[in-house]
Structures are given as C-alpha cells and as structure tokens.
Amino acid sequence: MTAKLLTGLLSRVAVAIGLSALVCSADTVIHLWGGDITLPTGFINKPGNSPDSQNGEFVSLDGNLTIGYDIGWMAGIWAKRGGSIEFNESRVGIQKVLFAISKIGVNPLRRAVFSFSGPEPANFFFVRTR
User: Fold this and answer.
1) Which domain range does residue 62 map to?
2) pLDDT in tens, the chain (130 residues)
3) In the chain, which residue ranges form alpha helices assigned H by DSSP?
4) Where are the extended beta strands (E) located within the chain?
5) Closest Cα to residue 66, out of 43, 86, 93?
6) What is the C-alpha to C-alpha distance for residues 44 and 97, in angstroms, rounded to an integer?
7) Burial (CB count within 10 angstroms: exposed 0-12, middle 13-18, buried 19+), residue 101
C-alpha cells in the first residue's frame, strides 16, 4: 500500500471517527480523558492499562481494522516529521493536528498516526501488518 493510498484511507477513517463523535446514535459511547467518542457500528473498545495515560484500541468486530489510542499528558506526541515517510500539519479550529506515516524497523510495517497536540495530547494510530 503506498503512502498516498494509506494517507487517503487514514483520512477517511479519522473523519469517520471524528464525525461519529459528533453524531448522536445508539452506538457505544466511549468516555476518554479528552472527551467522548461514539464508536462506529461494528467496533468495540479494548481499554489498555497504562498508569500514566489512557490507552487502548478500537477494534472492528471482524478484526480487520484496529485503531489504537494513547491520550493524556504523559502520552506525548507520536506524529513526528523526523523519520516519517509522509508528514502533514493542519488545524481543526484552534487545535493543531499532526499526521505521519513512518516505517517501523526493517519490516515492511507502516504506522500511521494522527496526533492532537496540547496540554493533554491524543494519539490515534494503526499499523499495517500485511
């Protein structure tokens, strides 16, 4: 999957998650440190157990898509220009949003990350494994 195709896919996924957080529905609402997210139909939340940030994964019921998250003042900013295959910085209102695709190790794995900066950063990511 090329970086451009992966960028397009991630953009659509991020928009879908962002929009789902704004739409009232009967879907599951997850309460995170920075606000609430309404999961798209067919996703479940698998919370992690980090002591210094709120982390976990949104997993599709068929297991084909997993979106990880790490939120809180100790989460840091995962999307970085250095070492990225692709990097973009934009704004949603006054909120700075960073997007990066980076290679992980020597494997053909790619990690795509959306990071929301601020006093309590939020990172949403997924890793391409095939």
Assistant:
1) 3-128
2) 444 544 455 555 555 455 444 443 456 888 887 788 888 888 889 999 888 889 999 988 888 888 999 998 888 888 888 888 899 999 888 888 999 988 777 666 678 899 988 878 889 988 665 5
3) 3-22
4) 29-32, 35-38, 43-47, 54-60, 66-71, 84-92, 95-103, 110-116, 122-128
5) 43
6) 25
7) buried
- What's the token pair of residue 127? 């890793």
38, 21 Cβ separation under 8 angstroms: yes
* Residue type at 88 in one-letter notation: N
Containing 67, the helix (H) or strand (E) segment is: strand 66-71
CB 30, CB 39: distance < 8 Å: yes
Cα 129 from Cα 54, distance rounded (Å):
24
Counted domains in the chain: 1
DSSP 23: S
Query: Residue 117 in 3-state DSSP?
Result: coil
Residue 58, both tokens: 């949104």
User: What's the CATH code of the domain at 81?
Assistant: 3.40.1000
